[in-house]
Write a structure and sequence with these properties.
Helix content is 38%, strand content 29%. By secondary structure, the protein is of the alpha+beta class. Helix 5 (236-255) packs parallel to helix 7 and helix 6 packs antiparallel against helix 7 (299-327). It starts with a helix and ends with a helix.
């Protein structure tokens, strides 16, 4: 008897789980049941107020950032939700279901959709996942996966200590004033699954604005929603591979002034200065492969140019002191050591001040 009781309980539990799972899975909407296509395809009635479209992105991947082309790649799910009670009444008037689904590729032929477009898209693939869910309470959910390339206003002037804001802007294709795009808070949840190796996430936010579209014949304001992800570059690689080595090469070049010009031979000093100058030049070209190619100078470009100038001055000063000592031994011989120290201090101080101006311009 105990065995039959246990078997009965197992069958009961399995049947209950099967019924629960079956009810949880939304069936396909019966598009043939749309008896009033005018209501289904019309803008939802919100008693004269604009239709609120709530947007909730969920990022899978963000980046890489292409500084040469001023663009970035993004892979994310976007869920748009709005109220359309008239459509729900059509589907669930004689149905016991709580929700049903429509293939997003054909939904626009049967029901009203906001037709969201991306203002700054370069190329976008939207068909990997595209589903509409119609709920009996009147809420319509449109979930799709977006994989694409977007343009960006990037500023690398402070590279590699730069901060970038990656923005994705959406607009509806409906008439102006009839739709308002809003974001679902908290915005930090949109990017909680993201991780970067060379960037640090600062902030994720959404902003609702309007965009003015104009042509020769018309002008319209459309509700716009901006998805903003602010990032800060992690500069460790560039500090260790580019800036650090060049900085110490400049200090070594300045150390050549420690050779007393009145007693020491100039050849070792000149050889050291020239070697370090050529090393800085070679290192600048090698490091260029890791730097963005831009039409303007970044802080790193200015730093490399200043370092090259200081190394060049070490060579020029060494040649000048050698010439003075050989051609005017009686006139400048006793003052060469003093001139050597003052030029060394001047170059060192100028190098420090120049770096302070480059890296801390606002101070």
């Amino acid at each position: 008897m105990e065995i039959f009781i246990r078997l009965f309980i197992k069958i009961f539990l399995v049947a209950g789980l099967a019924l629960t799972a079956n009810s949880a899975i939304a069936k396909k909407c019966d598009l043939d049941a749309i008896y009033d296509k005018e209501v289904a395809l019309s803008l939802p009635d919100n008693f004269g107020d604009p239709i609120e479209i709530e947007l909730q992105p969920s990022f899978v991947k963000l980046g890489p950032i292409n500084g040469d082309e001023y663009q970035f790649t993004a892979d994310f799910y976007l869920t748009a939700t709005w109220m359309h009670e008239g459509l729900a009444e059509i589907f669930f008037e004689d149905s016991t279901n709580y929700s049903c689904k429509i293939d997003g590729r054909i939904a626009g032929e049967h029901i009203w959709t906001p037709g969201l477009d991306f203002i700054n898209q370069i190329s976008v693939e939207q068909d990997t996942y595209n589903i509409f869910t119609v709920n009996s309470d009147g809420y319509i959910e449109h979930e799709r996966r977006i994989q694409g390339i977007f343009s960006a206003d990037l500023d690398f002037k402070n590279f590699p200590f730069d901060q970038q804001t990656l923005r994705i802007s959406l607009v509806p294709d409906a008439d102006e004033g009839s739709i308002i795009l809003l974001g679902v808070d908290p915005a930090e949840d949109w990017t909680k699954s993201l991780s970067f190796s060379d960037w640090r996430m600062i902030q994720t936010s959404g902003s609702s604005t309007t965009t003015d579209f104009r042509s020769a014949d018309w002008e319209s304001d459309y509700s716009t929603f901006n998805i903003n992800v602010s990032l800060e570059r992690i500069p460790t690689f560039y500090l260790l591979k580019v800036m650090g080595p060049v900085f110490f090469m400049v200090l070594l070049s300045l150390s050549s002034f420690s050779l007393n010009p009145a007693t020491e031979d100039y050849d070792p000093r000149l050889g050291l200065a020239v070697t370090l100058l050529l090393t800085v030049v070679a290192y600048t070209f090698i490091a260029g492969d890791n730097l963005p190619v831009l039409s303007y100078l970044t802080s790193t470009d200015l730093f490399l140019a200043l370092s090259f100038f200081v190394c060049l001055m070490c060579v020029v000063v060494t040649l000048a002191l050698k010439s003075l000592n050989e051609n005017f031994p009686t006139s400048y011989g006793s003052q060469i050591n003093l001139i050597n120290k003052r030029i060394r201090n001047l170059l060192f101080l100028g190098y420090l001040v120049g770096n302070a101006i480059i890296w801390f311009p606002s101070y």
